[in-house]
Amino acid sequence: MKKVDEFYIFDAIHERFVPAWYELSFRKKLTEGDIRCDAPVFVLRIYRKIIDTLFKKTAELARLDVWMPLRSTFLFERVPRRKDEGMFHEIVIPLPQVVFETNNSCLTCGGGGKDTDIGAMCRMCDGTGHVLEYRWDDARILCHRLEILLSALRHIDCCVSGTAPQLFTVKIFFGQGRPLGSWMLGGDVTPAFAGWLSSLPVRENIKEATTAMIVAYNYIVGAHMKEDDSGFRTWAEKNGGFYIQCPGNACNIYPSRVRADFQSLAAGNYEGYEWECHNVDSPLQQLTLLAGLAALHDLARKAAHDD
Prior knowledge:
Radius of gyration: 21 Å
Structural class: alpha+beta
Strand order of the largest sheet: 10-11-15-14-13-12
Shape: globular
Oligomer: single chain
């Protein structure tokens, strides 16, 4: 594809090629280069020319924030940044953990780890015999900072060049202090990503993305409160739509509306669309679904590279 320079025009992202100005990847752990991290991580790659503009914008947004004020420089504290790679700058974002085992005996099973009433493992302590404590602060802070940063990235004004297309955008809603169900996710899919999704086997589980969600979810909850793997699933539709689900009350992300008609599909013409979520009630679900989407990004980029 011919290299192009063009200003980002958000209204056109559903209709035409726009060079990538940011990418979101997922790694089970980070072992390459100077930075090592045993935790699963998001790797946010941002077009180098927009870094200064971006951080000025996030600083302005942070000053307006009313839920959890941030530093005006908007740094991810204790999060390492990798060296610039070509046209992109990388930020490594480790996932947090929220469930911790305490030294206190579980009141339900008396510390034995077994529920004698039903003759099975105690579900209150996950069989540990100890009280499990949920500490949500790190997860909430991360989701809030991602909300501000990804919001700024969706509306950046900069001349962007490159041959790799933008695949999707993400918007996150920070749910602290808001009604249940407001840890929402949404965004936009570009024609390039819709076209790649349409090439996948219809409604067949995309194991790489599903595995990424399982890894993310199980890391966040630690060794406890793991869910059956059947609660995680990712698949694509022939029209370029995608569906990602994780444990919860029908908790998933999906297209708001796929606009391509059958004649357009037959001709290989795909349009972008908006995507949204259903019943995302916690930062755990929010980050889990985001891991699945980031893994889809990695698969699409790998497919384009292999071609």
